[in-house]
Amino acid sequence: MKTLGVLLLLALAVQAGKVDAVDEVEAKDAIALFRVGVKAKEVEEKQGAVYALVDVPHDLVIKELEKVLRNRDINVRQVAALAMGGQRHNPDKAGKILMKAYIKNFKQETVLSSVLEGVQALGYLKYWPQVEPAMKDPRSSVVIRVLDLVGANKDFRSLPRLLEMYHVAMPRRVSWKTGTVNVDTGAAGDKDQKAAEAKFKAKYGAGGSKAKAKAKAKAKAFDERNFTTQLRRCVKKITGQDFDNDVDFEDWFVENYVMIMRKIAVMNGKSPDKAEIKAKAELPKLKADVEEKRKKLEEKLEKERQEQEKKK
Fold first, then answer.
1. Which of 54, 145, 231, 306 has the fewest CB neighbours in a 10 Å radius?
2. How many helices (H) and strands (E) does the chain have?
3. Is the dihedral of CA 278, 279, 284, 290 positive or negative?
4. Which helix (H) or strand (E) holds 181?
5. Positive or negative, the Cα torsion across 132, 137, 140, 141?
6. Other CB atoms closer than 10 Å to residue 4's CB: what's the count?
């Protein structure tokens, strides 16, 4: 796919924060130049014309970019989403338009990533109900962009889901799944994967059966363990803590549960005091569940330790 090269790689390096709109004359002049440039034959010239509007914050520009986000050329829509991120004089209006584009372009990976980057640049926070499901998206680039977004915004709303991802990506014990086989050797490195592959081959053979093909397709699907680096970085941005594994993260989550729920309420425009009352009522069960889970983990580890001792 053609791009604007380094310019787009560094797109929207500005920090989110409201800015003043330019005057109407400047906005109209910029739009006039854009309308000429967007008619160019080369896609790079079209993209350049669209991206030039990133530095022209005005409601007239938002209206123009909204039209461009419906352009049939995916390359043009991609840059329009980035340019919309510069409309920080009116982040609520620009953000709502980007979220409409998010829904419409959900199958277009490059446009979707640019929309999320634009939302991040705006500092627009009302994205969460629509973006949360994308944390399970099978496309790695989309998940990484969402992690960047929630990390940059210190979005406490994402912490429950991030903890779920930690349970899979960084548990105390490593489990490898693919197709319909499951192997947990507790080994480091790629030994789990090799063990699972051996079991997979034994079950499905070397032929091209439908069962094998289906399992292979599932094996290539979304795997949360692919995002350990991005996950860890994202969680640190939000919490200020660097957790090595899910146990440490979960302990912190439980210890700070009331504070987390208050922050989530504020980000959702709800009463933090009501959220605190609810969180305090939920806390005893949450602690009990964690203690029970921890007890089972300790029992499992002790059993394995004893089995290892017998082999010596």
1. 306
2. 16, 2
3. positive
4. strand 181-183
5. negative
6. 20
pTM beyond 0.85: no
- What's the rounded Cα separation, in Å, for the pair 308 and 262? 46
Domains and CATH numbers, the chain: 6-124 (1.25.10.10), 163-171+225-311 (no CATH), 176-223 (no CATH)
Collapse the DSSP code of 42 into the 3-class scheme (helix H, G, I; strand E, B; otherwise coil) and give the result: coil
Return the bridge partners of 176, or none: 183
Q: What is the DSSP string of 96-164?
A: HHHHHHHHHTTT-HHHHHHHHHHHHHHT--TTHHHHGGGGG-S-HHHHHHHHHHHHHTT-GGGHHHHHH
Residue 24's Cβ-count burial label (10 Å; 0-12, 13-18, 19+) is exposed
Q: DSSP of 189-242, one letter per residue?
A: TTHHHHHHHHHHHHHH-SS--HHHHHHHHHHTS--GGGGHHHHHHHHHHHHS--
Per-residue pLDDT 10s for the chain (312 aa) are: 444 443 343 343 344 578 999 999 999 999 999 999 999 999 999 999 999 999 999 999 999 999 999 999 999 999 999 999 999 999 999 999 999 999 999 999 999 999 999 999 999 999 999 999 999 898 888 999 999 999 999 999 999 999 999 998 888 653 434 444 444 444 445 555 566 556 555 555 555 566 655 555 554 445 677 889 999 999 999 999 999 999 999 999 999 999 999 999 999 999 999 999 999 999 999 999 999 988 888 888 888 888 888 876
User: Whole-angstrom Cα distance, residue 42 to residue 33?
Assistant: 16
Q: Compute CA 226 distance to the chain's CA centroid, rounded to the nearest angstrom.
A: 13
